[in-house]
Amino acid sequence: MEVTVKIAEELRLTAEEFELIKQKLGRTPNFTELCAFSGMWSEHCSYKNSIKWLKTLPRDGGRMLVAAGEENAGLMDMGNGFGVVFKIESHNHPSAIEPFQGAATGVGGIQRDIFTMGARPIASLNSLRFGNINDAKTKRLLSGVVKGIGHYGNCFGVPTVGGEIYFEECYHTNPLVNAMSVGIVKVGKTISATAEGLGNPVFFVGSATGKDGIGGASFASANITEDSAEDLPAVQVGDPFQEKKLLEACLEVIDTGAVVGMQDMGAAGIICSTAEMSAKGGVGMHIDLDKVPTRQKNMKAWELLLSESQERMLIVVEKGKEGAVLKVFEKWDLPCSEIGHVTGDGLLKFYMHGNLEAEIPAYELVLGGGAPQYTRDYKEPAYLQKVAAFDTNSIKDVTDLEATAEQIIQIPNIANKRWVTVQYDSTVGAANAGTNAPSDAAVVLAKGTGKALAMTTDCNGRYVFADPYKGAMIAVAEAARNIVCSGGDPIGVTNCLNFGNPYNPEVYYQFVKAVTGMGDACRKFNTPVTGGNVSFYNQHPEGAVYPTPTIGMVGIIDDMQYRMTLDFKNEGDAIILIGEQQNDIASSEYLHKLRGVEFSPAPHFDIDEEFAVQKFVSSLIHSKLISSAHDISEGGLAVTLLEKGFNRELGFDVAANTDLRKDAFWFGEAQSRVVVSCNQEQVEQIRQRAASANIPVTILGTVTGGYIKVNGESWNNTLSWKEKYNTAIENILNA
Amino acid sequence: MKFGIVVFPGSNCDRDMQDALQNDLGKEVIMLWHKDEDLSMFTTDDCIVLPGGFSYGDYLRCGAIARFSPMMKSVIAFAEKGGKVLGVCNGFQILCESHLLPGVLLPNAHQQFVCNNSYIINSTGGKALKIPVAHGDGRYFASDELLDELEANDQVIFRYCDSLGTIDKQFNPNGSLRNIAGIRNKQGNVFGMMPHPERASSSSLSNVDGLDVFRILGMN
Fold first, then answer.
1. Which of A227, A431, A636, A718 is deepest in the core (most CB within 10 A)?
2. Which pLDDT does position A541 carry in this prediction?
3. What is the 8-class DSSP label of residue A604?
4. Is A155 in Cβ contact with B54 (below 8 Å)?
5. What structural domains does chain A harbor?
């Protein structure tokens, strides 16, 4: 078949990129080679439209042990000789088509990124976005995604400990499924995704290769070649049992000392793993595709290169130590084949039936090598004028506080997500310290290290939509606040940047501003970005999703005695608000869901104020002055107070002495506020410390045995609120 | 009393069980590989534990393949000699498939995986114990005659209840018959239960009710 620009375009390469490929090769590529470029230069693998701005993020420093993008996942120093490995990744498009397998393989893929570095995953989180929960399509997607995450994670045996779910119309066609995994490794025991040592054998390990997921990274087209590409499943199929065996076998094989480098096969399968490992080591590979175990007969070279069959690894082994490697994989009943060896010429050469099917310099395929990097135009979106035009005075203040609070506590974005979370195994590993003692962030014991990790995912897409720069800062700030309120010290970030089409200048504006805001916030909190993933094209004919730069953040709790929980502890305790109340209802759930306002600014946020509040809360925790801390987020102060009461079914008696709007005081979502509770004897000391640290604090009232009183009015009891909060989502989904 | 924990390729609670027995109960533990069959280091005073997980993937019926593993053949012989055997979650399913315990474990009544803190109570009374469950197939099922026989022989060791010990359907996470959470064989040396005591045996998790479970089973 003659390769033409038309074929290149069908493979989602541009005419310019096709010319570039010809230049780099000094000839016209054959179809197999073109497919290799199509996969490797896809947005997913090359970051061609994002890398320029990603490089502006703080990507080293702090506790980082490898710079961002160097390995499959971020690696940071935990102390005591241990490192924490973590990463978040999207599986949005597959989940929109086939929610069960899409979400399941998303979970599988992120786990491989962790254990391919030699770390044992200890916790998973996921950040999900769907359309209107009352819609039948949303119910189907939600049910499938949750089943898929559970199916894979529960069998694989890593607890799902946290995450978030939002329901907004803009995600109707494009749900977001972002999966995060966190693992632990001994420093010095990590394995690099690199190929080195001339003549070292290259092993292919794990599941046989089929035609599933071909082109997942680049082209979802059925008409590539008429004879072979028809009826390809667009989505990969996951096998968590196989992955569990792969995990144990890979960790065991690392212990043999025979492994030079290892990389999992995710997007763009064999071509991606061979190209990235070779380019990183400055070597080439000679690969015999006949030796790759296949599920189907007569697979073509390009199919083998691009297949995204799951649960596969590429391992470079030190020559002479093959036996030790084979023995481990035999023990775990996993196929393991030597498919080639490392060469010195920097060329990837793929052979089949003795014929050279493709010959490409590895360097030319990869990010940081020959892959193109683009500077895209951007312009301020027109809708931001509507955002700026919002006038709070146009909204009449609430009259019935209690009735409004009752509505708010049942908004799906706020209500209890237990319908979802009970379907995930959250207790396997016997390390989830949140099961019996909830905190703002998940707290997981890092067994054997003497420490615990606090972890969270956060992003309110509506804030980012309203103000991409400030909204992204808020996502970072909220993540850090959740970790601080759990007694942790935030150390690093992984991000999953979900946006629309980057060729739309208004979408690209959102991307640029969000990345800039994220960078500034991460510098302030000293939480470098260790890596992550960009997902563009979350777009449908009517528009894009909210810009959703999900932040996955990890913090360290050096000593569990300083771990903090969110719930009220004792009747009679004082309730104190730390931070300042604002006359602000912008972008709140109240304004958006109950008052129907689509365009309003991001809520009040000042990064220095935020930082000071967090430092203050942290100092109170470390001085053991408080017994609970819970930040104010969606739903405002009223929701925070109610949530603090649920766990022990305690109530509160609080009063507001204020000139602010009632809706702003109780339901506003101004940032940088935390509600703590403490023994009455500590109040004066907290007040004094706040005065000297110049932090506003307000004594709101006291914890009660179960009744709720606001401004002297009885609001029924905690149990009745808890029932509404717990059952709101179930009532919709089971209807 | 020492313990052996059988590791199937899809076991994922084997390490948790090892931690609980070694660190929380101070027991000697030997890990056993599913392809091996040697149990000569154990006497009938010792206990073999089948941990939770997905033994061989459980794509067929849960525990249906594990039953035929080399190690399980030895475990069955060990149990028949009177040695103690405890199966938790997938381990309980394997014990039923192996006919070391009567009855079967069906998919949960609501057809969904369930993970939460459940309360269970021992047939001899005592307080309700808060023990996590995490399973998709935990609905204990048997004929009425068999259930009557289990009750007559005092073989039902745990039932689901609320925090006050009230046994009622609404506190049952999977729809098991007669709220059964765990049973033992007639001889009293083989125990199976769906809840995970090893996930509730450490003060660092703010729940040590699992230690009471091991005590009730005579394994403390």
1. A636
2. 85
3. P
4. yes
5. 1-40+192-373 (3.90.650.10), 566-735 (3.90.650.10)
Residue with tokens 């606040």: A481
Q: Do residues A383 and A376 lie in contact, with contact meaning Cβ atoms separated by under 8 Å? A: no
> What's the token pair of residue B79?
């149990």
Beta strands in B53-113 (DSSP E): 84-88, 104-106
Average pLDDT over residues A676-686: 97
3-state helix, strand, coil in chain A (%, to 5): 35, 25, 40
B196 is catalytic: yes
Q: Is any Cβ of chain B less than 8 angstroms from the Cβ of A426?
A: yes
- Condensed to tens digits (0 to 9), the pLDDT of residues A184-221 reads 999 999 999 999 999 999 999 998 888 877 766 554 33
Q: For residue B168, give its domain range.
A: 3-216
Residue A232 has pLDDT above 60, yes or no: no
d(CA B95, CA B66): 10
Task: Identify the pLDDT of residue A542.
Answer: 82
- Among B7, B8, B133, B204, most A C-beta atoms within 10 A, so best to mutate, is B204
Nearest to B9 among A332, A425, A433 (CB): A332
Average pLDDT, chain A: 93
Q: What DSSP assignment string belongs to B34-64?
A: TT----TT--TTSEEEE-SB-TT--SSSTTT
pLDDT at A16 over 50: yes
DSSP letter for A297, please.
T
Instruction: Give the number of other CB atoms < 10 A from CB of residue B62.
Output: 28
Among A333, A435, A560, select the one facing B132 at the smallest CB separation.
Answer: A435
Q: Which residues of A touch B34 (CB under 8 A)?
A: none
CATH of the domain at B15: 3.40.50.880
For residue B101, give the amino acid letter.
Answer: L
Q: What number is the ipTM of this complex?
A: 0.97
Which SS3 state, helix, strand or coil, does residue A228 take?
Answer: coil
Question: Would the pLDDT of A665 be above 70?
Answer: yes
Residue type, A720: S
Say how many C-beta atoms besides its own lie within 10 A of residue A498's C-beta: 30
Q: Which pLDDT score, from 0 to 100, does residue A230 have?
A: 46
